């Protein structure tokens, strides 16, 4: 199983259907779990999807329409009930602190969760961690909305054969990674001699919006782009009026931003009767790359690193720090 994958918890916009729950997406990214837009029923969908509340380390809400946030009360209480031992950070548009506060306190429970609120005040980086940064950009919807992207910095992949040839073993590998150079006997080994460039991966999450600069910025170079595609071409006027994308527009964002995999979701219930494939087809006409029409409870692996950086794919030594 990939250590970076998207667990799809729900894919319906506005109203759930027999086959589609309200939104909900848990991005499993190494030891982090980022829960995006938990709609109603998210807690139970997590059970079906085989992911526990303890996997959640961060919650990212794009906006406070119900299909994107009514699952928050249940998820927050579950995190508390399960006594998850770590703090959970919550990101959401700062304009609606009051709504978040109401959802947080919407029922009575013994609250032991360490929840750290991180309202998004402005475009840009909202979290800088060692392993990645999380960025937000404003979207164009009928209420304040932001999209998110996770950006892993470029790094270097250690090459076991080279390490062995230079006699670098055990804890020395970590020292070499930390310092960029290491003295072995009477010579200096540099990191460039025993490793190769490794592209950082990017994940982008774009929900309710019209076409806008923020959406294109978020999608830039994304390995996986999860994008709302509420409507088909025939409903393009509705999309514009209500602040949504058509599938073709989602395809255009992916194409113009150089995304690698486009995951479509957030479908209008009008396509419930077997005519949803048109959404994938219309997106594919604009994009040209792979398009996945998301289904509830699917797990979609983040594509492996960019092929250009895969030339000497090899296991990383255990000394990786
Ligand atoms: Zn909305």
Strand content: 25-35%
Q: What is the topology, as strand order, of the major beta sheet?
A: 6-5-4-3-2-1-18
Order of helices and strands: EEEHEHEHEEEEEHHEEEEHEHHEHEE
Q: Measure the end-to-end span.
A: 22 Å
Largest sheet: 7 strands, mixed
Concise account of the structure shown:
The chain is of the alpha/beta class and 321 residues long. Helix content is 24%, strand content 27%. The strands form four sheets. The chain has a seven-stranded mixed β-sheet with strand order 6-5-4-3-2-1-18.
Keywords:
single chain, 321 residues, alpha/beta, seven-stranded mixed beta sheet, disordered C terminus
Description:
There is one protein chain. It contains 9 helices and 18 strands. The radius of gyration is 21 Å and the shape is globular. The chain is of the alpha/beta class. The protein has helices spanning 42-49, 72-81, 97-104, 160-165, 171-179, 213-219, 236-242, 247-257, 277-287; strands at residues 4-10, 24-29, 32-36, 58-60, 88-93, 115-120, 124-128, 133-138, 146-151, 155-158, 181-184, 187-190, 195-198, 202-206, 224-228, 261-265, 291-293, 299-301. Helix 1 (42-49) links the parallel strand 3 (32-36) and strand 4 (58-60). Helix 6 crosses helix 8 and helix 8 (247-257) packs parallel to helix 9. The strands form 4 sheets. Strands 6-5-4-3-2-1-18 form a 7-stranded mixed beta sheet. The protein binds zinc ion (ZN). Zinc ion binds next to loops.
Layout of strands and helices, then pairs:
Elements: E1 4-10, E2 24-29, E3 32-36, H1 42-49, E4 58-60, H2 72-81, E5 88-93, H3 97-104, E6 115-120, E7 124-128, E8 133-138, E9 146-151, E10 155-158, H4 160-165, H5 171-179, E11 181-184, E12 187-190, E13 195-198, E14 202-206, H6 213-219, E15 224-228, H7 236-242, H8 247-257, E16 261-265, H9 277-287, E17 291-293, E18 299-301
Parallel strand pairs: 3-4, 4-5, 5-6, 14-15, 15-16, 16-17
Antiparallel strand pairs: 1-2, 1-18, 2-3, 7-8, 8-9, 9-14, 10-13, 11-12
Helix pairs in contact: 6-8, 8-9
Bound molecules: zinc ion.
Zinc ion binds next to loops.
